[in-house]
Every structure is written in C-alpha cells, then in structure tokens.
Amino acid sequence: MTRQATASSEPVAPAEAAAADATRPIVRARGLAKQYGDFTALDHVDFDVAPGRILGVIGANGAGKTTLLNAILGLIPHEGELTVFGRDPARERAALMRDVCFIADVATLPKWMTAAQVFDYVEGVHPGFDRTVALDFLSRTSVPLSKKIKKLSKGMTTQLHLSIVMAIDARLLVLDEPTLGLDILFRKQFYRSLLEEYFDDSRTIIVTTHQVEEIEHILTDVMFIRDGRIVLEAETEALETRFAQVSVDACHADALRDLGPLYESGSLGRKTFVFDGADRAALQRFAPPQRMSLADIFVATMQDAPKGDSQ
Ligand SMILES: Nc1ncnc2c1ncn2[C@@H]1O[C@H](COP(=O)(O)OP(=O)(O)OP(=O)(O)O)[C@@H](O)[C@H]1O
After folding, report:
1. I want to staple 168 with a disulfide (CB 3.0 to 4.6 A). Which of 33, 101, 215, 286 is the partner?
2. Are 283 and 255 in contact (CB under 8 A)?
3. pTM
4. CB neighbours (10 Å) of residue 216?
5. Are 255 and 286 in contact (CB under 8 A)?
6. Collapsed DSSP state (helix, strand, coil) of residue 49
7. How many CB atoms are located within 10 Å of the residue 237 CB?
C-alpha cells in the first residue's frame, strides 16, 4: 500500500523499486477457494510465496495440492483472490506462462518424438527456452538426440525432461509430483540437479511430492494441506526449533500430557509425544527432546489437524 501511494505522488528510486520487487510475493492468495459441485477442494486459503524460495506443498492423497497448483497455473477457475507475478492466472494465463514453467510428471513426454523434436516443440511454444542450454545439459548424459522417447529408459527420459527444465528461463517453476515412478537414484539426481544447476535467488520453485524425506533438504518453506485447508505453513529452518519429540516410560505420560503435546503414540510401555513450540527445558526434565524429520512432523500434524467440515 505504501508503495502504491509513493508511486502515485513521487518517483521511486530504482534501488528502492528493486528492493520492493525482491520482497514482493510471487504468489499471493487470499480466500482462495475451489468447489467441484458441492465438494470443497480448496477451502479459502491464504498464503504468500516470496521470491527465491523453494516451497514444498505436502498433503495426503486428495488433500488439494494439484488443485492449488492448477489455480496458480490458471488451469482452473477459482474463487477468492489469487495473483501470480501480480496477474490473475485465470485471465492472464498466456502472459504469465512467459515467467512460469510447469512440469507434471517427468514420464509424460510424447513417446513418439525424438529428443531433438521435443526441443523443436518447446522452442516453438516457450519463448524462454534456450536450446543451447538444453543441448549442453544433454551432452553430459547418455541420452541420444535422435532416438524416439519410447526407446529411452525412464532414467534417460528424466534427464531429457530435466534438460528442458534447466533450459527454460522461468522465474517460477511448478513441479507436481515430478519424480513419480522413478527409482531412488533418479529421484535423487533430479533434485540434486535442480538445486545445484537450476535454482538461484532469482527463481522460485513450488513442488508437491509424497516422498517428503527426499525433498526435505532442498525446501526453504513447507505448506501442509489437509482437506483443502492449510494446517501448517513455516520456513523449514524454523521447524527444528519449533517441533520436538520425547520418548518416555508410560508412567510419565500424564505429566507430559499436561505440557500440551500435539500428538502421542506408544508401544511396549513407552510413549512418544510430539510438541509444537514447547519449552525445551520442561521437556528435558523427562528425556532429551529429539529432532524430527519433516515426514514425522507431517504425520503428527495430520493426526492432530481437525478434519474439515467441507466434505
Ligand atoms: N475435476 C474434478 N472434479 C471433481 N472433483 C475433483 C476434480 N479434481 C479434483 N477433485 C477432487 O478434489 C480433491 C483434491 O484433489 P487434488 O487432485 O487437488 O488432490 P491432491 O492433493 O493433488 O491429491 P494426490 O496427492 O492424490 O494427487 C480430491 O478429492 C479430488 O477427487
């Protein structure tokens, strides 16, 4: 608001404008909702995605992840406010796609084309595609340019797909389950290349996957979705200080329950309690608080989150 007021009354210094651009959200949603008939797939969610971040959108099957991405990409109409690079994706999709690259599933390249033909095609439809970058990436692999995609192994297809991602100069990359069906080596390679060769401060990535543990290390932010609602939104770094779990003999269970755990589980006379924002010193009196993986935090949060009344 301040920025708009300034712009209308006095000129904004270039440095100031650049600083404002660097912090302005790439994606801004307020009351974003999506109904399929009487089913609520997205239930009035609010969120911002800042530039230079890697956001993991995590949720169980049917949580609403793809619906959220499709709204961002302008592929479905929505209710509520949604802007991507300041534009309404549903109305200004063509202009938006100059800045956005979307990959659904790496295995979905057209099987009847050769790699060279795929490059021809992408060159024709995406103004940000740089063929020389793609060729350079591919030259470091064993993927032949002249072979039809149906004759490539899945790993080769991944590398071909990656070469396209790397060569599209997009400011926002949207990945929906990008490594579905790939073995662990190729999944790891995909994310390593993404981080080391593609990502920099000028780009933003939004990614969904069920293989949370494999992308944990690349994410700067996470959003957990359940029943079309956001149940947790946080910087990944903050999770470590925020969440902790302690395992104790069952005889201490009541005392730990008094500290307000998010979730508890137990077996064989031991109880494990998960805490969100608890006083570490208070937990330490019972047992050393342990660091939790993103997958563990996800499970605990999902157990705790009340089921939406939207179904
Ligand atoms: N075109 C549609 N018509 C009706 N319901 C739909 C449609 N698309 C999605 N849904 C429903 O909306 C809900 C959210 O679907 P969505 O694909 O966004 O989930 P998701 O989190 O991506 O799931 P998954 O991890 O299984 O891909 C699901 O219950 C789904 O059945």
Report:
1. 101
2. no
3. 0.85
4. 18
5. yes
6. strand
7. 11
Q: What residue type is 162 in one-letter code?
A: L
What residue owns the CA closest to ligand 1's atom 26?
61
d(CA 239, CA 226): 18
Q: Of 283, 37, 136, 19, give the one whose Cα is nearest residue 274.
A: 283
**Closest Cα to atom 6, ligand 1: which residue?**
36
Is residue 274 scored above 50 in pLDDT? yes
The per-residue pLDDT for 105 is: 62
* Chain length of the chain: 311
Task: Please give the single-letter amino acid code of residue 283.
Answer: L
Residue to substitute in 32, 35, 36, 180 for testing ligand 1 pocket (most ligand atoms within 8 angstroms of CB): 36
CA–CA separation, 132 and 98 (whole Å): 19
The predicted pLDDT at position 36 comes to 94
- Paired with 222 in beta bridges are 56, 234
Question: How far apart (Å, rounded) are the C-alpha atoms in residues 191 and 214?
Answer: 8
Q: How confident is the model at residue 94 (pLDDT cuts 50, 70, 90)?
A: confident
Round to whole Å and give the CA distance between 110 and 228.
32
ipTM score of the complex?
Answer: 0.97
Q: Say if residue 20's pLDDT is above 90.
A: no
Task: Write the DSSP symbol of residue 148.
Answer: B
Distance 236 CA to ligand 1 centre (A): 26
In tens, the pLDDT along 190-237 reads 888 888 888 888 899 999 988 888 889 899 999 999 999 999 999 999
Number of Cβ within a 10 Å radius of residue 195: 14
Q: Which atom of ligand 1 is nearest to the CA of 60?
A: 25
Distance CA 280, CA 283 (A): 5
**Chain centre to alpha carbon of residue 88:** 20
| CB contact set of 220 (below 8 Å; sequence gap of 6+) | 53, 54, 55, 235, 236, 237
